[in-house]
Amino acid sequence: MTNSNFLNIKNGRNLTMLVDFYELTMGNGYLDNNVGDKIAYFDMFFRRVPDGGGYCIMAGVQQLTEYLSNLKFTEEDIDYLRSKNCFDERFLEYLKNFKFECDVWAVPEGNPVFPGEPLVTVRGPILQAQFVETMILLTVNHQTLIATKSNRICRAAEGRPVMEFGSRRAQGYDGAIYGARSAIIGGCTATACTIAEQMFKIPASGTMAHSWIQLFSTEYEAFKAWTKTYPDNCILLVDTYNVLKSGLPNAIKVFDEILKPMGYRPKGIRIDSGDITYLTKKCRKILDEAGYEDVKIIISNSLDEHIITDVLSQGAKIDSFGVGERLITARSEPVFGGVYKLVAVEENGEIIPKIKISENEEKITNPGFKKIYRLFDKSTDKAIADLISLHDEKIDDTKPLEIFDPVHTWKKKKLTNYYAKDLMVKIFDKGNPCYKNPPVKEIQKFAKEETEKLWEEVLRFENPHTYYVDLSNKLWNLKHSLLNKFSDLYD
Amino acid sequence: MTNSNFLNIKNGRNLTMLVDFYELTMGNGYLDNNVGDKIAYFDMFFRRVPDGGGYCIMAGVQQLTEYLSNLKFTEEDIDYLRSKNCFDERFLEYLKNFKFECDVWAVPEGNPVFPGEPLVTVRGPILQAQFVETMILLTVNHQTLIATKSNRICRAAEGRPVMEFGSRRAQGYDGAIYGARSAIIGGCTATACTIAEQMFKIPASGTMAHSWIQLFSTEYEAFKAWTKTYPDNCILLVDTYNVLKSGLPNAIKVFDEILKPMGYRPKGIRIDSGDITYLTKKCRKILDEAGYEDVKIIISNSLDEHIITDVLSQGAKIDSFGVGERLITARSEPVFGGVYKLVAVEENGEIIPKIKISENEEKITNPGFKKIYRLFDKSTDKAIADLISLHDEKIDDTKPLEIFDPVHTWKKKKLTNYYAKDLMVKIFDKGNPCYKNPPVKEIQKFAKEETEKLWEEVLRFENPHTYYVDLSNKLWNLKHSLLNKFSDLYD
């Protein structure tokens, strides 16, 4: 990987300095107190699925890999930091010679993930493991948010293609670019974002805007001009003036008078406003009667999973959807609240677990260096539960396994005929990338397969069953022994 | 301006291909129909203020300038487009030799702006004026959204400093970087985003995270270590274990035992969780009794304008705020719905206005090449109304002016003792940049001054008065004459 490929943005750019300033003041402080090299373990995890859903779709590992592979402070960066008058020369020298040395594990992209489990774990000198916090969170929070939203919207479409159309309303350029990438991971079949096709080999598509129609003297003339240029991909936008009184009649006239003599079939019509259910039913009937049963109806007006579910249940006749602002910003819940917490340090080679307590139980962290096992039913291939264990615990899935609810510990379940999958993969070994990121289309396929392994009660949009994320006996005991040490703070 | 400075991202990047694919299919179609050079006028405008507010703060003109100054298709871009098998060689040749030739006008950054008025107007060959749609919308929509949200949050803080802390929850890297820029324009005093200071000369700051506290054997040891490194800027995070039972007593102990003998005063404490009102009142009292009346209390827990208003009205003792995810994503309403519409074309040198009609009256556009006058009361300097007129109308503000409500036309108002300000500036002349973008800190100051010229009824958070955006007589008549032509579509 070269710098020119950094973050896959054409021409490259260096985002090493995209970092919360406190990572730098802490870094300087760690060195100043001679603990900069102390080995620390950090987990990135989230606490709640957006939109009340049952799971999230992990995304962003490729960009995280590219970021971590290209950390580099320039002379200009060092000079700027020096000008802040709060950093020691020793720290600036450290940054100048910065070489990433951490081990990093992550859940591969496309996996369904659940609250409380580590999505990324970093082990290394605390100065470094701390420094990368901002970009790990920024990268995974954003892409997981959009992949998760896209997955909801695509499931609502029930197999109909969904195209991502949101660049113009995204929150910044990367919001559009990586948002398009994440939308594809979640299930979208294409994007309107051209640069995303160049960068990620995901299909870009698009036809015309209302301005095309307005430019010509009449809607008919505009359709005619379009059809002559694109006879083999003729999709006409029919709502500039009035769908039923103008757009559709003009489209059919052009299909009959222009396209047919040229020897082509039309591909579709697009409707971008108005009463979707009413209009699509009417249009379908009129198209069918005109002999255009194969012409698709494409809808693209402020859609999300709820509106799509609604119009389909009302019998709207839609073949595919273009989804914009509500997908690219995850409008209904635009924040993915991933956090990055210290979970252990090493003292003389021994791992000492650390806990972050809180008066809010949800905010108490799972201590220690951990891994995640996903447990599947052998007969159905469905996921039963995730089990978070300490890193050195092994599950022998030839033997029965008893799991229990970490809060209501009397709720137990004995598993037989199951298999266990180790969910996290190592992506950096002592600072060197050691994982091959798959192409986006493969991640999309994987996400679909893994999502289908969830019970439909977990897939539900509203009030899904809570998927079990349990702790191993050893981890549960460790956590509670640490909590007991702080019990005087709760009286 | 050089390419290496493009979009001000360090090391540069080329976002020419960040474009909705349909801009390209239309471009090819315009050329194919021999109308690519037809002169067209497009307006960017929005229809509704987010969060039910009374106005927005314009932002993004500098990045728009940089984008338009650096449009360039590489060989690789041309090859990629050729591989799509839908573009003529003539079009690819056009792109290869692309030279931006449009005139562009914009409302300068920091101005309060209102629904329905053009924020950006582009005049030029339709192929080009169409092409830039995606990036104009993406740039101005994002930055205006965040500047507007920031302005609300900063006004709620009633003069207390507000710091932008949201990078980790932003929607992508640019969401963090340009979000920080926009947050400063809206009124924030600083950001945690380090690279934003380098790029925009806006102050970056930050101290410590909970991980610093956790790393040391005790909270006291952690505070002591910090204080020794940063005696001159000692702000301690006191909520890792328990604010009142542990954090604050330890902080005061360190202030007394470590900092005082070193000859320094502490700067502040930060609280990131819990009951803000209760905790800050208690902390203020304890700090004061310990002789630390000058030590500031900084709060940073999921804040927005409503929570800030709430806790201040309850008497919380807060000196400054750190605001994260709810600002950087404009969480309460994360979409800014700016649109870009064709409003006129030239035929034989004459401007022919175009209108986009809709069954939804709000979506009907204002036709023609226009300008905006902001009308101020001479005696109070308060803004009375905006008047959108045709581009060649001049207001003689030495004479009385009658304005009227464009919907309820019988509501009229006669202005005397007023002055008129032409709001839009030309930023490109025949493709050449002709406007000097001011530094961000100047834009911030300007935004504050211009906002203070609005009546407090417009500034209100909930149910503000609607600021008048009227049409000149000439424009109103033009619009209605065009609408009447389409009246048969509404029967």
From TrEMBL, chains A, B:
Q: Which residues form the Nicotinate phosphoribosyltransferase C-terminal domain?
A: 370-479
Q: Where is the Nicotinate phosphoribosyltransferase N-terminal domain?
A: 17-141
Keywords in UniProt for this one? Glycosyltransferase, Ligase, Phosphoprotein, Pyridine nucleotide biosynthesis, Transferase
Identify the EC number(s). Answer: 6.3.4.21
Metabolic or biological pathway, per its Swiss-Prot or TrEMBL entry: Cofactor biosynthesis; NAD(+) biosynthesis; nicotinate D-ribonucleotide from nicotinate: step 1/1
Please describe what this protein does.
Answer: Catalyzes the first step in the biosynthesis of NAD from nicotinic acid, the ATP-dependent synthesis of beta-nicotinate D-ribonucleotide from nicotinate and 5-phospho-D-ribose 1-phosphate.
What is the protein name for this chain?
A: Nicotinate phosphoribosyltransferase
Query: Which species does this protein come from?
Result: Clostridium ganghwense
